[in-house]
Serpentine receptor class gamma (Caenorhabditis nigoni), 258 residues
Amino acid sequence: MFTKTTGFLAPFFLQFTKEHSQKWLCIPHALHFAFAYGQYNFNFGVCLNRWTIIKFNNFETRWKAYFWVFIVVTIGIPAALVVPILLNTSYYSQNEYWNTFYIDSTFGRKNIYMILTPYLAVVTGVNIYMNISSYRKMIELAKSGFSVPDKRFLVISFYVFTVDMFLTTLSVANCTILNFQPFTDNLTVLSWIAFCTPFASDVLTFCSPLLTFTMCHSVSVTASKMKRRNMVPAPDEVYPVPAVMSQTIGVSIFRENK
């Protein structure tokens, strides 16, 4: 482990303890949580886009017209929520249970998760509602005679729901551990929570694109065609044979055949 107190990066972490920290360390610390907020907002936008287009008619034009609002919200909310981290001092501390280093802030990790956890819980709840509502709408359309990819959409919605619930549970677990300190004697639970936390938001971000690529036949076929097209050399990479050389080759072939 790179973050072990006996690891080769230990001298680097020891340079940024609470007593010897530098102000710039709060920037990557804040970006870590800003990216997490942004990734949850991205997943919320995917669910919102799918829900509005399925639930309401002619909503695609509004998305094109007001897509900039979604971009501003996706960037603005994370920037606002990490301001307390930027206004405080970040530093590396040692965990006595795992013998590892972790980044902390004078603002307090428990305060960071007290902001993060309710926000993620609300976003996850709204996502679950939109996915269920979208699927019910597709069932109604199917009964009315419209062709809808009900089975694939059900699988995608189920996977997104599972990931949302798992990551929200992980955030609630972090918040509970920091505020009430349960599982102090169960190092296995604490180790798994610490291992999964850094990758949580990345799983959420890649979930929807990967599911769309694997479940949507038209997308996978288009991607396969693009891959085959890229493997074919471009026209400017094919060097033409000079006219004199082609005539020589033609004469030699004619003589051999003759």
Q: What stands out?
A: The CA atoms of residues 86 and 217 lie 45 Å apart.
